[in-house]
């Protein structure tokens, strides 16, 4: 048993979609969330910058004595996960592996769509991981750079969001599932569902990752088995953002404002 918190990291509000799933899966775990709002968006940055920022985020979380780290960001997972995994001696997981494992087991899901940021699509992180694990997969993919900034603004259910999603989903008419390869995108799930239709499985990577993390903690005997619900602290690198509004709507938890602190990194 280990009561230390789990560290989570994203460029902004996106990782909260993962936090929400983790809370459902492992409600007793304490969480420290870091949103690098000062440097958002990550999706348009170079691989070198993403590696540098991910190391900064990981080191901040390590300074808070976390027992495991979740890179709750597709852009950082696809370009910096290997780098930080090799550098630090603590379990660090990203959003790609658990979803790939899920797809491997579900043989009806072979026509796979992926939407993500420019950086993630350019890195081919999803494409090569899926292809090497599932050789008969047919993958279609598209970068959707407008969605993460719209999510930070809270524009996830209005007419602009609908038209943007509609435009980005052109070309995904013949798929079995659609991976939301950026953690901001589950915020658009309602509109995505309406546009893509009822037959396509929409994959929220946070759901798959939370199960993987639970297994790792069990295996390493690091679960928090205390009876009460886990606590959550949120650190932002810049506090003048719309974060609070989006976080309150998504997490539906009281007292979020009091949980937000400034991270001076
Ligand atoms: N939520 C992030 C991702 O999963 C980053 C979006 C961004 O900062 O551009 O890719």
TL;DR of this structure?
The protein is of the alpha/beta class.
Explain what you see.
- Helix content is 45%, strand content 17%.
- The mean pLDDT is 96.
- By secondary structure, the protein is an alpha/beta fold.
- Helix 1 links the parallel strand 1 (6-10) and strand 2 (31-35).
- Helix 2 (47-63) crosses helix 3 (74-87) and helix 4 (96-105) runs parallel beside helix 6.
- The chain is globular and about 45 Å long.
- The strands form 2 sheets. It has a 6-stranded parallel sheet with strand order 4-3-1-2-9-10, sandwiched between helices. A 4-stranded parallel sheet has the order 6-5-7-8, sandwiched between helices.
- The chain folds into 2 domains: 6-94 and 207-262, Rossmann fold, CATH 3.40.50.1860; 96-205, Rossmann fold, CATH 3.40.50.
- Bound molecules: D-glutamic acid (DGL).
- D-glutamic acid binds at residues 10-11, 14, 40-43, 73-75, 117, 120, 148, 182-184.
Attribute tags:
four-stranded parallel β-sheet; 265 residues; alpha/beta; binds D-glutamic acid; Rossmann fold; 2 domains; 10 strands; globular
The helix/strand series, from N terminus to C terminus, equals: EHEHEHEHEHHEHHEHEHEHHE
CATH topology of the largest domain: Rossmann fold
Q: What is the helical fraction, as a range of percent?
A: 40-55%
Specify the biggest β-sheet. Answer: 6 strands, parallel
- Terminal CA distance reads 31 Å
* Mass-distribution shape: globular
CATH architecture of the largest domain: 3-Layer(aba) Sandwich
Averaging pLDDT over every residue, what do you get?
Answer: 96
Class inferred from helices and paired strands: alpha/beta
Which residues form runs of ≥5 with pLDDT under 50? none
Strand order of the largest sheet: 4-3-1-2-9-10
What is the domain tally? Answer: 2
Number of strands: 10
